[in-house]
Write a structure and sequence with these properties.
By secondary structure, this protein is mainly α. It is 73% helix and 0% strand.
Length: 218
């Protein structure tokens, strides 16, 4: 069973690129035949075959599909490039047909599991705007830009730039256990304040007066 190593959409796009390259070689076969450039054309075809094998190994788990393609697209060598040429054309078409068949069977392939730590797991807006910075090794700039995107989005939604402001002064409320705990905490604080004893109030006032006197004396 074929198992994908990257998202299905990306596999399809990669296969389409290899198919277009194969079609380009099929078109160039006529040039090789008219000019006698058999050796050069065969070299191009072999390069395409090897690169496609490497690409299939990147797209699919294991090497079975890459090996199958390599065998399908490899012509048997004859006594000269001229005599190898017609067999190579057939094998080239067979290779392109196999790639097209892989696209047709993509829905049957086992999809890759999403890695929660992968770059692709980020929000689409952050991914699209920070990916190039990450890939070029500018990690600090990528993190800073991602933070600014989140900050700007929070400001657009709440009018505040930080979570503490939005949930504090902005009184942003999220239904759920966290919100309930917040209400309970606020209620508990208010209850504690309401339950203050007269003695503790008098003691507090005395301490403030003593502090004021000390400050004036100094």
């Amino acid at each position: 069973m074929a198992k994908l190593l990257i998202p299905r959409k990306e596999v399809k796009q990669a296969l389409e690129v290899r198919i277009r390259a194969g079609h380009d070689l099929i078109a160039k076969a006529e040039v090789a035949e008219n000019t006698g450039g058999y050796r050069d054309w065969l070299h191009l075809v072999e390069t395409w075959r090897i690169e496609t094998i490497a690409e299939l190994n990147r797209l699919y788990e294991g090497t079975d599909i890459g090996q199958e393609f390599g065998f399908t697209a490899k012509p048997a060598e004859r006594s000269s490039p001229r005599y190898t040429f017609p067999y190579a054309k057939m094998r080239l078409q067979d290779g392109v047909d196999m790639l097209q068949s892989l696209i047709g069977r993509l829905e049957l392939a086992v999809g890759t599991s999403r890695d929660a730590t992968a770059l692709e797991s980020l929000h689409p807006v952050i991914y699209s705007k920070c990916r190039k910075l990450y890939e070029s090794g500018e990690y600090a700039a990528g993190v800073e830009k991602g933070f600014k995107i989140v900050r700007d989005r929070l400001r657009a939604l709440t009018g505040h730039e930080t979570g503490s402001e939005a949930f504090g002064r902005g009184q942003l409320y999220i239904a759920g256990a966290a919100a309930i705990r917040r209400d309970q905490s606020a209620f508990s604080s208010a209850s504690t304040s309401d339950q203050a004893t007269p003695g503790s109030v008098r003691a507090s006032r005395t301490a403030r007066r003593s502090s004021s006197v000390s400050g004036s004396s100094s």
